[in-house]
Amino acid sequence: MNAPRLPSLIISRAERDDCRKAARRARPAGRVNQRSAIINPGRFALPHRRAFTLIEIILSVVIICILAVLSIAGIGQVKPVIEGAYCANSLRQLGLATTMYLNDHQHRCFDYSVVEPAGKLWYFGFESWLSIASPEGDRIIDVTKSPLYPYVQQVGGVEVCPSFPYGQAIWKPKYQGASWGYGFNTFLSNVNTLDVQHPSQVLLFGDCAQVNNFQFPADANHPMLEEFYMIENTYMTIHFRHGGWANILFLDGHVQKFTMSPGTLDTRLPNANVGRITPFGSMEYLQ
């Protein structure tokens, strides 16, 4: 009995051509013949796109303007926060320098000022009598003679508060150059700080300034803002320059933010935000 005959795997040229034609007919309709596209690119041109209308353009511009305004407003709100944090860090540096001074001087604090034969030794530097008699803005302070100077150098320096309006029209210079922009609690002058019962409730330094309407170039009709260096129980010398807040450094080293005590604004220059953190005459935070 003969075995069944298997179909041949060899196809003729005619059969092969028929298979190719069938394959071409079976291609998807959306497939692009690249050769044809190169020869005749117009056959496959992109569809026409509609241009923006005037209303769409105007709406886009309005949205961009709104976003820009919101961004600027956000920057205006963030800036006082950043500068306030920078200021607080400078106060901590000043507090650290003071702690080092106290450790070297049996915990007795330096004086706010001491009269000497050649001039006056402020806690922030020495000033000769000639300088004291000089016009405002021309006075010279030698910061290297400050009792705190060597300790300030050891802690890496104390930066000027970035929120004080140096160089602005409102500013009246007192010395050639700027001090730190901070005031000292004068009730701590020559005090043994170990005798302070609650150091976390007694301020050491704080944001400080004074409205001046009695020294040229300021006058009664043109009050100006100047650096000031003392905080006590009657003067309006706390400067609320961080968006309505003032930084206060306490004897234990912590920094706290305060708003102005009601009724203590210095109305001679209300936009300067100078006042007090306590009512007039109060000894709170001073002893």
Give structural attributes:
single chain, 287 residues, alpha+beta, five-stranded mixed sheet, three-stranded antiparallel sheet, 5 helices, 15% strand
Descriptive account of the structure:
This protein is an alpha+beta fold. The chain has a domain at 77-275. The protein is built from five helices and twelve strands. The chain has helices at residues 13-26, 34-39, 54-104, 129-132, 149-154; strands spanning 113-116, 119-122, 125-128, 182-185, 203-207, 210-212, 224-226, 230-231, 238-239, 246-250, 255-258, 274-275. The protein has a five-stranded mixed beta sheet, with helices on one face. The chain has a three-stranded antiparallel beta sheet with strand order 1-2-3. A hairpin with a 4-residue loop joins strand 10 and strand 11. The radius of gyration is 39 Å and the shape is elongated. The termini are far apart.
Strand content: 5-15%
* Low-confidence parts: 34-39
Derived structural class: alpha+beta
What Rg is obtained from the alpha carbons, in whole angstroms? 39 Å
The number of helical runs is 5
Distance between the termini: 128 Å
Q: Tally of extended strands?
A: 12
Main sheet attributes: strand count, strand direction, barrel closure: 5 strands, mixed
Average predicted local confidence, pLDDT? 86
Order of helices and strands: HHHEEEHHEEEEEEEEE
Spatial strand sequence of the major β-sheet: 8-4-5-10-11
Task: Give the proportion of residues in helices.
Answer: 25-40%
Shape: elongated
